[in-house]
Amino acid sequence: MSEKKEEEYLTIPAKWEIPYRHSAGKFATRFFKELKENKRIMGVKCPKCKRVLLPPRAFCERCFVPLEEWVKVSDEGTIQTFTICYEKFTGLPDPPYAVLEVRLDGADTDILHLGGGVDLSDPEKAVKKIKVGARVKAKWRKERTGSILDIEYFEPV
Amino acid sequence: MPRKVAAVGVGLTKTATRRNDVMHPELLYEAISAALKDARITMEGIDSVVYGSMDPFDGINCPDKWDVDVCGGALNKPYMKVTTGGTTGMSIALAGYYHVASGLYDTCLAVSCQRVGENVDAQLVLNTCVDPVFERHTGVGAITVGAFQAAAHMAKYGTTQEQMAMVRVNANANAANNPYAHLRFEMTLDAALATRFISWPLRLSDCCPRSDGACALIFASEEKTKEITDNPAWVKAAGSISDTYWPAKPVADWDNLAMLGKRIYRMAKIEKPIKEIDYAELYDAFTIQQILELEALGFCKKGEGGKLVEEGVTKKDGEIPVNMSGGVLCTNPIGATAMIRVAESALQVMGKADRRQVPDVETALAHGWGGTLQFHGSMILGKDP
């Protein structure tokens, strides 16, 4: 680097504001409809390896076969791993917030969602309730719109 | 059968949160001209170029267009771009190696650049890498994913926050000897453990910085290597592995890295990694990852990575010195970071690592991970082909 101080060089401000619309497709559309209308969490079962995959998708990534059989899974499950975020990052949720990988009963893969129902302000206390192996249950919203946020969060049972 | 290939030139740049003193192609110019100088060849001697970065960090879409002028564009070189998240730098190095090993080119310039400091918050960019249908609302970025590994490893094996902090202490002690490192200050264990939680169980001291930096490597065929240098770093083994995106894989163990380790050890005829490998550069964006990588790559048993660090085995005079550069914990220009692992390994094999040099490195291993924990790449370099 030159001996000149960094502040002496120009910087050019820039910002990307590009709207997108992402396709949910047949499987995610049905999944969200089930959340909204029936308060059900639905996975799909692979005819070959028999695993119940969640979130649902059109194919099994291991057996490389199409999936058709819809299976209801529980809205209760076990935390596989988690974190509690205490830092504010631009454009991301206000801390503290917990993120969980949950294996719902009846599913063979995990769902990624927010954790809640616990005071997160003190990490040492919070991790006594939100921890690997803890049982959690979906907290459903009263007004559901057909999005992943129809489940507000998963809370300890 | 692949041809024998060696790394014959290494180019590193100064790194910092911001390198306001250079534009994007100028930062690459620094790395490329250093590699050419190291190999004592000119751009005319480069047969092919593999370039890469992870676009959104820099806020420049397809920077390959802007950067081609420093990659031999005006000289009409063959040129391609490679990008695979955090493994980008390793994928570029692998592609550079494959270009020459295939017999299609005698030399290849592999070059990577990233300006993570040009955006105000890398975690927001990382969140755009996440599935927008089911997962993006959780705010996950790289730190959260690293924290998942730490929480799982602590629960399964009893790894402690003190052991993770020791990885930081080692990293900073090493980076103090590296003029190309971003964070260059020593840190005590107490100071590391006193830093705030960013995403429990990861404290600030468990996390890498975001850096501006670039790296270049020149690969050459056996014949060309002999013309260029009598001190190359031969590629003894190289490979990559992937795993599913979906969160269905175990998080406490990096099983696919263990599989990659077995593959490349077979290629390099290595049976006992800790005895036969003299040096390792591991992609430790978070302290916990060095622990998982030590286990997966067979330097210790599963669950014993923390203990290995505690016992000093990864220090300069230990049985397997790790990241004398300071590693990713001290410098992380993301798309270039995995290539820096190869560059530092090559320098150790060549005996050109100055104050960070470990004596008598015959064989060194470089590693990179990327994606949501599902990509790995690795290269084993040696004094002998």
What can you tell me about this protein's structure?
The complex is a heterodimer of chains A (157) and B (385). Chain A is an alpha+beta fold. Chain A has one domain. Chain A has helices spanning 25-38, 123-129; strands spanning 41-45, 52-53, 69-73, 76-85, 97-104, 111-115, 135-140, 151-156. The mean pLDDT of chain A is 95. Chain B has a domain at 5-120 and 210-228: Thiolase/Chalcone synthase (Peroxisomal Thiolase, Chain A, domain 1, 3-Layer(aba) Sandwich). In chain B, 36% of the residues lie in helices and 18% in strands. In chain B, strands 3-2-4-7-1-8-11-10-9 form a 9-stranded mixed β-sheet. In chain B, a hairpin with a 4-residue loop joins strand 10 and strand 11. The longest helix of chain B has 17 residues, at 334-350. Chain B is globular and about 55 Å long. Chains A and B meet through strand 4, strand 5, strand 6 and helix 2 of A and helix 4, helix 5 and strand 5 of B.
Q: What's the CATH architecture of one domain in chain B?
A: 3-Layer(aba) Sandwich
Q: Would you report the number of β strands of chain A?
A: 8
Order of strands, main sheet of chain B, comes to 3-2-4-7-1-8-11-10-9
Number of domains of chain A: 1
